[in-house]
Design brief:
The complex is a heterodimer of chains A (163) and B (203). With 163 residues, chain A is of the alpha/beta class. Chain A contains six helices and six strands. In chain A, helix 6 links the parallel strand 5 and strand 6. In chain A, helix 1 crosses helix 2 and helix 3 packs parallel to helix 4. Chain A is globular. The termini of chain B are far apart. In chain B, helix 2 links the parallel strand 1 and strand 2. Chains A and B meet through strand 1, helix 3 and helix 4 of A and helix 3, helix 5 and helix 8 of B.
Chain lengths: 163, 203
């Protein structure tokens, strides 16, 4: 397990400091650390698509933006991803929690839990499932892929990987 | 006042450095027809997303004034963004709704804005200035005020009229629009480097 501080230190070294999102219990410590850190901006959005719109502005001003969301919120970003970010080539780092992983969760999470990787593949969003031991390399890959392909990239956070 | 006339009034008065975002459909197409410029950004899809992009931009480009110009259908689709914008209250954001009480781009089906007062909603959400105009004279007065005061404004302009049958589409590709707009921002950022590099401070 890695700490939320370590997670943010890696992103800060890559100049990723502007985030918006909608909370998830699996992202609790990540969001709380962001809220407490004066070098990080976290805008609490009212919906996941709103978070994506806010974070997308970072690219237009020459920075890198990111969103934090539960996988249940992926449905709310399908349209903005396909009719905005992917066609305007606006990269955003998507930090997606994975409720319903391996079918062990509350009923409302089971279908999206099973579909999450398929949905990202269907949308051609490159993604990686974070492992505690490989966090640095995976985040570096995500940011490099955003830059090279000018596309949103997702990193998936399972329970007990970052706390 | 037609939507085209209202857009014409706004675009004629836009200061050179001001950024202007236009929503999907006829508003982008008419704005492109009236006065295209590198500081214009047309969101050709993603109805309802424009205000959140505008908020993110206003917070990260505090030395620029950001105009978000959308229709009633788009505003109604993302009403939750209205209190979010008000909570951050960026003084460099002017939110214009051109309200024709219809989804004109899809054939003129009615919206509910004939019975819902969008200006009252913005007022309740906490926008600093809220103005509601029905004709060109009042629109000009409200635009004067927007340009003179640095404060978050919601400007509801009731408009009529249909788009011209021969109205063209935005001829630039989405990718080219991103490149052109961020270039326009970068040039200004290098002229005002220190201010642009400051971290965002909400409220």
């Amino acid at each position: 397990m890695r700490t939320a501080h370590e997670f943010w230190e890696i992103l800060k070294r890559q100049q990723m400091t502007f985030f918006s999102g909608v909370p998830c219990s699996l992202l609790e410590s990540i969001i709380n650390v962001a809220l407490a850190d004066p070098h990080l901006t976290y805008i609490p959005a009212v919906r996941e698509d709103v978070a994506l719109g806010i974070a997308s502005a970072a690219h237009l001003v020459g920075r890198r933006g990111g969103i934090l969301l539960q996988n249940s919120g992926l449905g709310n970003v399908v349209n903005p991803l396909t009719s905005f970010n992917l066609i305007y080539r606006i990269p955003v780092l998507m930090v997606v929690s994975w409720r319903g992983y391996e079918g062990k969760d509350a009923p409302e999470h089971l279908i999206m839990g099973e579909k999450t990787p398929h949905l990202l593949r269907t949308l051609d969003i490159p993604y990686t499932i974070l492992e505690a031991a490989a966090l640095e390399d995976q985040l570096a890959w995500a940011i490099a892929t955003m830059e090279q392909k000018q596309t949103p990239v997702a990193v998936i956070v399972r329970k007990a990987i970052i706390a | 006042m037609t939507r085209y006339e209202a857009l014409h009034s706004i675009l004629r008065r836009l200061p050179e450095r001001d950024l202007a975002l236009f929503t999907t459909g006829m508003i982008s197409r008419e704005a492109f027809d009236i006065r295209d410029r590198p500081e214009n950004f047309y969101m050709i899809g993603s109805m309802g997303l424009l205000t959140s992009l505008g908020l993110g931009l206003a917070l990260q480009a505090p030395t620029r004034t950001v105009w978000v110009i959308e229709g009633d259908g788009s505003a109604l689709m993302s009403l939750g963004t209205v209190p979010l914008i008000a909570a951050y209250r960026p003084a460099n954001l002017i939110h214009v709704v051109l309200d024709n009480e219809a989804y004109e781009s899809t054939g003129g089906q009615p919206t509910i804005s004939g019975t819902v007062d969008l200006a009252a909603l913005a007022q309740a959400a906490g926008y600093t200035l809220v103005r509601r105009v029905n004709d060109e004279r009042d629109l000009d007065a409200a635009l004067d005020e927007a340009l003179a005061r640095r404060a978050l404004m919601f400007l509801l302009a009731k408009v009529s009229g249909r788009a011209d049958d021969g109205l063209g589409r935005v001829s630039l590709t989405p990718e080219a629009l991103t490149e052109r707009f961020s270039q326009a921002l970068r040039q200004a950022a290098s002229a005002n480097h220190n201010a642009a590099a400051e971290p965002v401070s909400p409220c």
